[in-house]
Write a structure and sequence with these properties.
This protein has 269 residues and is α/β, with parallel strands linked by helices. It has helices at 21-34, 55-62, 80-88, 108-115, 140-156, 175-181, 192-202, 228-243, 254-267; strands at 8-14, 42-49, 69-74, 95-99, 122-126, 170-174, 207-211.
Length: 269
């Protein structure tokens, strides 16, 4: 662990990524050590979300003797959002980022996005902005789901009508922002990104969406149980909509809480 507080904390949530995480981590560590302005004053937190495939052992071998990198192992699966919320308890940087473990976003993109935090509090990487670069076309199924999800967002949350891509796996934000919205982060699945962005806008923080280079990777967690994810994400959006309304007290219902937990178990099987 670092002896002094880092300027930058990068969180990498990982669920069963034993076959993909090594090149991602090596790329990140090389870039952070050699190409960033932070002079190695960073921390890299890999949070493993109830993995069952040997990911923790692989990660610990990769990061051995690297003081700026820590492995956090969660015994039970919390979901992508739940894992990130847990990791935020450990993050000490003035800037915090999270990046997908599959290597779809080159680490070189981070430097450009980090610079923009001098102008705003939350920077969102986007696959659908004008200056985004996708070397390979997305599959029709993923593209249709992504665009349909975006339409639903615009209907439920008017503050998000100008955001083209809430779900891209790289976001960078200030510690000040996360301290302000932390109590409002209640979504533990893939819709966590919506929760973060909407809460930031709701509290008056400045948000900027930026096109990035993004490379399609096989083995997406969204592809597994594809029919389940849209159902659960839609329910999560409804839950978030209720939270930011006069009906918030409905969410305190024990019956609803039990149903939500049962759905989480179903989603993760």
């Amino acid at each position: 662990m670092l002896e002094t507080a880092p300027q930058l904390s990068i969180v990498v949530p990982a669920y069963n990524e034993v076959d993909r995480i090594e090149p991602t981590l090596k790329d990140l560590m090389f870039t952070l050590d050699n190409k960033f302005k932070f002079n190695k004053n960073y921390e890299l937190l890999i949070i493993m979300d109830g993995c069952k495939d040997g990911t923790p052992e692989r990660v610990k071998a990769i990061i051995k003797n690297h003081l700026s990198v820590s492995a956090i192992v969660l015994p039970n699966r919390l979901g992508k959002g739940g894992a990130i919320i847990e990791a935020l308890k450990y993050a000490k940087g003035d800037l915090i980022a999270f990046v997908d473990a599959d290597g779809s976003i080159p680490s070189s993109e981070l430097s450009r996005l980090i610079e923009l935090t001098e102008q705003c509090d939350l920077v969102i990487g986007s696959r659908y902005a004008k200056n985004s670069v996708l070397p390979e076309r997305r599959s029709l199924g993923r593209f249709f789901f992504s665009r349909s999800f975006n339409v639903l967002l615009g209907l439920l949350f008017w503050r998000l009508h100008s955001i083209k891509d809430t779900q891209c796996g790289v976001k960078i934000f200030t510690k000040k922002l996360i301290d302000a919205v932390n109590g409002d982060l209640l979504i533990s699945d893939f819709a966590f990104d919506v929760n973060l962005i909407y809460s930031a806008l709701f509290h008056g923080f400045k948000v900027k969406e930026v096109g990035i280079t993004w490379i399609e990777k096989d083995g997406s967690k969204m592809s597994k149980g594809f029919y389940k994810q849209p159902i659960f994400m839609a329910l999560s959006l409804l839950r978030l909509r209720i939270y930011y309304s006069n009906l918030r007290r409905i969410l305190d219902s024990k019956t609803l809480s039990k149903i939500y937990k049962v759905l989480q178990v179903w989603l993760n099987t």
